[in-house]
């Protein structure tokens, strides 16, 4: 499965490279661009419907803001991303999140002569916005139960470090940082309960609120036009912790395909795959598809 995810991302990058046209001269100074999208999914069934099904309603909010700086051989790219989704089925007592991500990325680079290589320094911060729950069922009443498992800044990940960046354009680059520090922050309440075992909650030890790691990070970004009015954006982040199980590489891959209808309507397909053995022993997969109302600024 890991190989499939990596191959998909690499193929996207290769396609982008082969299809890349000669870049126009880049503007100096600050450039800013943002988009807000709201995706909707809805199904409804009346009481007489015999084919099975449950009425449901879901929505997903995407906020994406880029502010980048270019001055001669110095480049500084910044991106703020908010992705939040929720769904409610008629038969469920509680609404459930389908996505919850708050992320900030920043990478500065100093160009090596007249090449595509840059000395780089990057920072990545990500967390979630609202509480997350594990759902179950009461053995006696058969009612749905939920237990709080995550919250704002619990967990939160902060990565930073120097490295080398290969950058073809604003839409295609790869950053390699062999000395990356990573801190995992959690609410101490989750690690201080009776019977807590070191590392059970996102790798953090008992009665601690932070875990420090030192490792290697590789990140890539590729955005290209598949066909007219259809764009695909790929984000890939890999991380290996030198201090513990370096062979267990954390993977975070996101693909966002936007099919433009007009200036305000689009159809979006979002696919994300995460592997982090400190969180779950296996891949976390999510997919969102829906009609989007989009506003660019």
Q: Report the biggest beta sheet as strand number plus sense, adding barrel if it closes.
A: 12 strands, antiparallel, barrel
* Mean pLDDT, all residues: 86
Uncertain residue segments: 1-24
Question: What order do the SSEs take from the amino end to the carboxyl end, as H and E?
Answer: HEEEEEEEEEEEEEE
Number of continuous helical runs: 1
β-strand amount: over 45%
**What does the overall shape look like?**
flat
Structural class: mainly beta
Description:
The protein is mostly beta strands. It has a single domain (2-20, 30-296), classed as Outer membrane phospholipase (ompla), Chain C (Beta Barrel), CATH 2.40.230. It is built from 1 helix and 14 strands. It has one helix at residues 2-19, and strands at 29-43, 56-71, 74-89, 96-111, 117-127, 132-137, 144-150, 156-169, 172-185, 210-227, 230-241, 250-260, 265-275, 283-296. The strands form 2 sheets. Strands 1-2-3-4-5-8-9-10-11-12-13-14 form a 12-stranded antiparallel barrel. A two-stranded antiparallel ribbon has the order 6-7. A hairpin with an 8-residue loop joins β11 (230-241) and β12. It is flat and about 70 Å long. The two termini are 38 Å apart.
């Amino acid at each position: 499965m890991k190989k499939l995810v990596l191959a998909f991302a690499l193929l996207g990058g290769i396609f982008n490279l082969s299809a890349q046209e000669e870049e126009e001269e880049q503007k100096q100074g600050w450039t800013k661009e943002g988009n807000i999208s709201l995706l909707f999914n809805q199904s409804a069934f009346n009481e007489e419907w015999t084919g099975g099904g449950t009425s449901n309603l879901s929505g997903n909010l995407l906020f994406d803001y880029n502010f980048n700086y270019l001055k001669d051989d110095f480049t500084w790219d910044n991106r703020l991303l908010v992705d939040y989704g929720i769904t409610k089925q008629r038969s469920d007592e509680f609404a459930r999140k389908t996505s919850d991500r708050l992320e900030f990325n920043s990478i500065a680079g100093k160009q090596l002569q007249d090449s595509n290589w840059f000395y780089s320094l990057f920072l990545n911060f990500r967390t979630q916005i609202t509480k997350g729950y594990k759902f179950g069922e009461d053995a006696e009443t058969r009612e749905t139960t939920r237990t709080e498992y995550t919250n704002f800044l619990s967990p939160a990940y902060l990565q930073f470090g120097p490295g080398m960046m290969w950058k073809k354009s604003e839409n295609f680059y790869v950053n390699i940082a062999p000395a990356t520090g990573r801190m995992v922050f959690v609410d101490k309440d989750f690690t201080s309960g009776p019977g807590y075992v070191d590392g059970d909650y996102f790798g953090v030890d008992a009665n601690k609120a932070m875990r420090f790691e030192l490792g290697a990070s590789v990140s890539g970004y590729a955005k290209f036009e598949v066909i007219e009015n259809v764009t695909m954006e790929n984000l890939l982040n890999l991380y290996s912790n030198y201090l513990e199980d370096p062979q267990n590489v954390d993977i975070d891959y996101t693909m966002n395909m936007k099919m433009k209808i007009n200036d305000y309507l689009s159809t979006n397909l979002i696919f994300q795959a995460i592997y982090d053995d400190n969180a779950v022993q296996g891949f976390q997969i999510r997919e969102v598809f829906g009609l989007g109302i989009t506003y660019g600024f």
